[in-house]
Model the fold of this input.
Amino acid sequence: MKRWKNLVCVLLAGLLVLSITACGSSDAEKTPVDNPSTEGAASNNDGVEKISWKLAHTCTEDISLHVAAVKMAENIAAATDGNFVIEVFPNSQLGGNRETLEGMQFGTIEMNIPNFAYLGGYAPSVSVMELPYLIDDVSSLDGADAVYNSDVLSQIYGELEEAGFKWLSGWYMGNRNLTTTNRRVTTPADMKGLKIRTMESEWHMAHFNALGANAVPMAFSEVFTALQQGAIDGQENPYCNIYTMGYHEVQKYITETAHVFDVVPLLVSKQAYDSLPEEYQQILVDEAKKITMDEWQWSLEQNNAYKQKILDIGTVECIELSVEERLAFKEAAQSVYDKYAQENGDDLINAIANAQK
Done:
């Protein structure tokens, strides 16, 4: 009996060793992706960590913003020997503005180029960017450059960081202009009663309501059909969107109100940024800044080219406002500034105005 007991003990000990060996083998065979802390990173043949990020935006591949994003990503990859790769997803492939901002907070998207209208809930002061006629001189890029690429907006940068977003740069989409179906608009009085599509933004809507129009918030994808069917009388967008979305086919007039110098922020998740090696952080910041004014110039040229295409078709009248005529629109929208100042103070408004002097 004693001999059998000893044999059983030996067998059990052997099984225990096999069990322990099997568990160790299983752990050793796990790939880096199985460990959440290493997702998005791998090692190349030299043992250097390779980082892969996603950059999302809602514009088409034709827009200068996308061209700049791709070029920036190429420059970053070259500067890091291919170890820091940013893949650009245009056309709302990863979702709209709201979804991609949430993705940044959830850690599924590292970079984004959203519209300011979607950032007010994260950074209250960012709403100042939606005020109409904020940039006085839209005949050149100088005044806007003094605002969007300076410390004037440091309050906004700080609030965004607290919400988990780091501002890298502001990229230019073009000036937002008014288009109408049947009414020629040259003065604020001409706006009375017109149903104008806007983004779902408190300040965009307040602007057109202040001019006597009726602001109609509507999804971007629904605008062409609404114009075609007469559900709305007009809309507002840069020339690049007016042409590529075909609005010029169902509109008769474009009034160059330039009510918004349409800049969008290039943002990076603060958590993702902080996880980068310092060398890569500096490369990311430098490359974003380097390409900014190139992107602005590309956008300006692109919008001018789209305007010329519309003029060449000959079915739409493009109305260029004088400085005095545009100022009349700003004065008619003063109530929007008063409302903003009452809710948020006027420090930022004054700082932006002073930066342009």
Remarks:
- The chain has one domain: 44-355.
- The radius of gyration is 27 Å.
- Confidence is low (pLDDT under 50) at residues 1-39.
- Residues 44-355 form a domain with the D-Maltodextrin-Binding Protein; domain 2 fold (CATH 3.40.190.170).
